[in-house]
Design a protein that fits this description.
Elements: E1 2-4, H1 15-35, H2 40-46, H3 54-74, E2 76-89, E3 91-97, H4 111-125, E4 130-136, E5 140-147, H5 150-158, H6 172-182, E6 191-197, H7 206-215, E7 218-224, E8 231-232, E9 234-237, E10 240-244, E11 254-255, H8 259-268, E12 270-275, H9 283-290, E13 296-308, H10 310-326, H11 333-337
Parallel strand pairs: 3-4, 3-6, 6-7, 7-12
Antiparallel strand pairs: 1-2, 2-13, 4-5, 8-11, 9-10
Helix pairs in contact: 3-10, 4-5, 6-7, 7-8
Length: 346
């Protein structure tokens, strides 16, 4: 398996088209400047030692050296051995509410960012448990299937926003049902669902969905994100705040945490309910409950003994630079006078 230790450095390869464009512009300027001196054939006779093709060759070697240098700095690595790692953990599915009400700022900086920060801290504390992420508003979508790749989980988490679900609303029941379908019940590991929401469910019967999950030995825990007093929902246009959401009568809509609904869902799912605050996300309490569920050993394949291959590319870069250095912009007059294929007339 091939990977790059510093993959972000590969963005430097995007400079190659810029170099090519600059070289083309320079060549056109050079041709116009020579043409301004007079007839092109006469000018070439006046400067016989100047080569018009060698700069292109030198430029090609420069590009090759630059590309090899960037790839070498990114340090390509080859996984020389794959092994099966025995892990013992549980399957956790995180259900994150991304409806517009999650933009309310009764938690700093807002409910959604507060919840994402809590999930990020949860991921940092995981070891062998597998994790998946579902986002929901009026509909639910799998953002990240069950995985042990915590780096990927944090990467996907950072991309979550309220615009990724086109249908507004809060369909907690649909999210629970999707989470249940995302589990692999054949592996026998303990399973749990953690919902982060402000509890404003308007679309379906979330309590029934939680009961169904509990009947299949999946506990459903709820973290209430928001405050009972509530806060207005900011309205954004082109990335700029343009006021707050209003109802049909023009009154500002205040979104409040529906703790009764959140508690009812958690009770039906046999899980815990915790209200998040600016000081604590409450995930530690939920994880204490999840720590009691059954964990089973499972196999996970991974590459080990990655070997660095940067030396090859740095050596090629040096070789191309040396070749480029020794290619002169001037012709070799001795070689140019050598007429290997000219037939002498008697």
């Amino acid at each position: 398996m091939l990977r790059f230790e510093h993959i972000t450095l590969l963005w430097a390869l995007a400079a190659i088209p810029v170099f090519i464009l600059l070289f083309i512009v320079y060549n056109r300027w050079r041709k116009r400047a020579i043409a301004a001196l007079g007839d092109a054939h006469v000018v070439k006779q006046m400067i016989p030692e100047v080569s018009f093709s060698r700069p292109r060759v030198k430029f090609i070697f420069f590009l090759l050296a630059y590309a090899m240098l960037v790839i070498g700095m990114a340090n390509p690595q080859i996984g020389s051995k794959m092994e099966e790692v025995k892990r013992k953990g549980a399957d956790l599915m995180l259900l994150l509410d991304v409806s517009n009400s999650m933009l309310a700022e009764d938690l700093a900086p807002n409910r959604l960012e507060n919840a994402k920060r809590a999930i990020s801290q949860l991921i940092d504390n995981l070891h062998d448990d597998r994790i998946g992420i579902i986002v929901f508003a009026g509909q639910a979508y799998v953002q990240l299937p069950i995985t042990t790749d915590y780096s990927a989980a944090k990467l996907f988490l950072n991309t979550i926003n309220t615009n990724m679900v086109p249908t507004q609303g809060t369909a907690i029941g649909a999210a629970i049902d999707l989470g249940m379908r995302s589990f692999d019940f054949k592996n026998g590991t303990g399973k749990a669902i953690i919902i982060l929401t402000d509890g404003e469910n308007h679309e379906d019967d979330a309590v029934a969905a939680a009961k169904n999950a509990r009947e299949k030995d999946v506990s459903v825990h709820v973290i209430g994100v928001g405050s009972p007093d509530g806060a207005p929902i900011p309205l954004y246009r082109n990335g700029q705040r343009a006021g707050f959401h209003t109802d049909n009568s023009g009154q500002t809509v205040v979104s409040k945490l529906n703790e009764d609904m959140a508690k009812e869902i958690a009770a039906a799912g046999g899980g815990a309910y915790v209200r998040a605050t600016n000081a604590s996300s409450g995930l530690n309490i939920v994880m204490d409950q999840i720590g009691k569920i059954q964990r089973k050993t499972y196999d996970s394949k991974s590459f080990k003994d990655y070997e660095d291959r940067f030396q090859i590319f740095l050596a090629l870069a040096l070789l191309f630079l040396v070749v480029e250095f020794f290619i002169s912009n001037r012709k070799n007059l001795k070689l140019s006078r050598l007429k290997l294929f000219e037939v002498e007339e008697s």
